[in-house]
Amino acid sequence: MWLLGTPTPVTVAFRVVEHPSAKASSAFGRVDEDGTVYVQTPDGERVVGSWLAGSPEEGLAYFGRKYEDLAAEVAILEKRVAADPSRAATSAARLRGELATAAAVGDLPALDARLAVITELAAARQGEVAEQKAAARADAVAVKEALIVEAETLAESADWRHADEQMREVVERWKAFARLDRKTDDALWTRLAAARSSVQRRRRVHFVEVEEKRKSAQARKSELVAEAEKLAESTSWGPTSARFRDLMTEWKAAGGAPKGAEAELWGRFRAAQDAFFAARSASRSERDTSFKVALEAREALVTEAEVLDPSSDAVGARKRLRDIQRRWDALPPAPRDSSSTLDRRLTAVEERIRAVEQAKFRPDPSDNPLVVRLNESIAKLERRIDRAEKAGDAELLKETQTALEAQRGWLAQAIRGA
Q1: Quick one: DSSP state of residue 98?
Q2: Which pLDDT does position 249 carry in this prediction?
Q3: Cys staple from 362: which of 127, 182, 357, 386, with CB 3.0 to 4.6 Å?
Q4: CA distance linking residue 409 with residue 354, whole number of Å
Q5: Residue 45: phi, psi to the nearest 5?
Q6: pLDDT tier for residue 10 given thresholds of 50, 70 and 90
Q7: Is 7 a residue whose pLDDT tops 70?
Q8: What are phi and psi of 38, to 5 degrees?
Q9: SS3 of 113, please?
């Protein structure tokens, strides 16, 4: 057998079985007596090889199958031209170039004609593909330019937080589109990146401002904590309670400190506040206990006074009342409301005794100038006590109660002396 393109004969080592293509090949070629194989072309016969391995029919069949292989390639290209016109055109050009020297026997001009059609179809299809790509590119450019306009609008938004979220979505939509040519895509991306950088820059500025505010809040809250911790040991219950209320208002107005510092400062502030109010509650509880004991003692004295009968022994009733009043004056303070009621009951006993004494022509002590002045002074002290309780001023309250007890003692003595 002669290989394509070489004049040197090669003898095959096997016998080829006769193939049906031998008859078809005989119309387009021949094998001469010395084994040279020819193929018919428009320009005449052309040598395609040599056959020495069997009969001329077998040689034609062999080279006919080579033709069939070429025809199969052409058929494949005919099917692929629509899907991949560029590759089909390249392969068609290659095959057309190989037909002139192809070691095959068959209707080579027909194959060449089919390849020419494939070349024309591929060219037409390439034009269509180019138009489609151009249209798709134009659409992609339009979409990406629209995204850039959206991004540049977001870059001017006053709501940077919303703009940041929307910008992320714009970038993700951008990435979903295929890249254009490098120059165009890079130019468009530069605009988009500039808009995104603007939003991110404003975002960074915002967080820098937030951090500065938090540090300022931390400094202010540290001052409030220091003051609260000093006030925790105060026993001026009214003024200090009011100051703690103001501190809480100032704490809220100071804003939020950095997360870790906020928790630590709040813990210290709350601890100081709790310590003060716990001490105030304990003091009030102790005072309430003292008030309860004093109130019970005063109740007992009033009960003892109310059984006195001056109608049978006015002098003895007056003497026993004075003893009751001395014990009354020696008692610790009691709640003003309850104590006032008991005061009135004790005063009623005294008036009852005085009425009996007056019935015996004793002068009325209420006309005594000293008694009048003491009653006026006692009324003023009672009003001061009311104001001190409302203001929560424990020191003023204690001072005024002491003065009131003294004035009442003097009044009792003035009345007795009258």
Answers
A1: H
A2: 92
A3: 357
A4: 17
A5: -75, 150
A6: very low
A7: no
A8: -120, 155
A9: helix
Residue 32 · residue 111 · CB < 8 Å: no
Neighbours of 85 (CB within 10 A): 22
Which token pair is 4? Answer: 């394509």
Q: For 191-235, what is each residue's pLDDT tens digit?
A: 778 877 777 777 777 677 777 888 888 898 898 889 888 888 888
Question: Is the separation of the CB atoms in 125 and 87 below 8 Å?
Answer: no
Sheet holding 44-50, edge to edge: 29-31, 36-41, 44-50
Neighbouring C-beta atoms of residue 226, cutoff 10 Å: 13
Whether the Cβ atoms of residue 78 and residue 118 lie closer than 8 Å to each other: yes
How many angstroms separate the first and last alpha carbons of the chain? 165
What residue type is assigned to position 310 of the chain? P
Specify the pLDDT at position 229: 87
For the segment 63-86, the average pLDDT, to the nearest whole number, is: 91
CA distance 268 to 275: 11
Range among 131-135, 159-163, 382-386 with highest mean pLDDT value: 382-386
| Average pLDDT over the chain, rounded to an integer | 80
**Cα–Cα distance measured from residue 283 to residue 272, given in angstroms and rounded to the nearest whole number:** 17
Q: Per-residue pLDDT tens for 290-335?
A: 777 878 888 888 888 888 878 777 788 888 888 988 988 888 877 7
**Cβ neighbours of residue 280 under 8 Å, at least 6 residues apart?**
237, 241
The answer to whether the CB of 21 falls within 8 A of the CB of 68 is: yes
Residue in 382, 392, 393 with CA at minimum distance from that of residue 343: 382
255-263 long-range contacts, CB within 8 A, separation 24+ = 255/213, 255/214, 255/216, 255/217, 256/214, 256/217, 257/214, 257/215, 257/217, 257/218, 257/221, 258/211, 258/214, 258/215, 258/218, 261/218, 262/218, 262/221
C-alpha–C-alpha distance, residues 386 and 394, integer Å: 12
- What pLDDT, on the 0 to 100 scale, is given for residue 18? 40
Beta carbons of 111 and 102 less than 8 angstroms apart: no
pLDDT band at 36 (very low <50, low <70, confident <90, very high): very high
Note the pLDDT of residue 47. Answer: 92
**Coil, strand or helix at 37:** strand
How do strand 44-50 and strand 29-31 relate by DSSP bridges?
unpaired
Q: Tell me the C-alpha distance between 10 and 49, whole Å.
A: 10
Spatial contact of 188 and 145, defined as CB atoms under 8 Å apart: yes
Q: Side chain identity at 20, as an amino acid letter?
A: P
